[in-house]
Design goal:
The chain is of the alpha+beta class. Helix content is about 30%, strand content about 30%. A hairpin with a 6-residue loop joins strand 3 and strand 4. About 15% of the residues are buried.
Length: about 160
């Protein structure tokens, strides 16, 4: 007597093995497929460290210039910025364009001054229109009480 033919509801043992193997491979590969694209764009357009150093130096210069002008003094030269530690970073809107808010601490000193100062910072950066440069953004109040106005200053283009 011959065995009864298999019905479609009963796959053969080899097919069941391939299905189980396929499910396990999918379970292992799916998390990798989801994480790899995120790792490729982990930088996400955030500013590189060199831009952060330039922005901190520019912020110090602008602050010193404003104080020197108010006191009718000569402003010191460009500060030396080092040991930047970023504690927070988040993507934000600066006006109508995307930008970054970074906060942390850094060391700096004035030219010819042996004393190095450890200071906290909060910095707002915005990428240039073509994505080739960066701008330091500073909040300047709210003209109508509902929207934040910004002053932006270009950072030197590395070259």
């Amino acid at each position: 007597m011959l065995p009864a033919p298999r019905t479609p509801a009963q796959p053969c043992p080899a097919a069941r093995l391939w299905q189980a193997l396929g499910r396990r491979l999918l379970a292992l590969a799916l998390p990798l497929l989801l994480v790899l694209p995120l790792g490729a764009c982990a930088n996400g357009g955030q500013p590189p460290r060199s831009v952060l150093l330039q922005a901190l130096a520019l912020q110090i210069q602008l602050t010193q210039g404003a104080i020197a002008q108010a006191l009718e003094l000569e402003a010191a030269g460009a500060p030396e910025v080092s040991r930047v530690r970023v504690a927070e970073q988040q993507a934000i809107r600066i006006g109508e364009a995307p930008g970054w808010r970074l906060a942390g601490a850094f060391d700096w000193r004035l030219p010819g001054d042996p004393i190095r100062v450890d200071s906290p910072f909060e910095l707002f950066l915005q990428r240039g229109a073509r994505g080739e440069s960066w701008r330091l953004a500073r909040p300047s109040g709210s003209p109508d009480g509902s929207t934040q106005a910004w002053i932006t200053d270009p950072l030197p283009i590395p070259g």
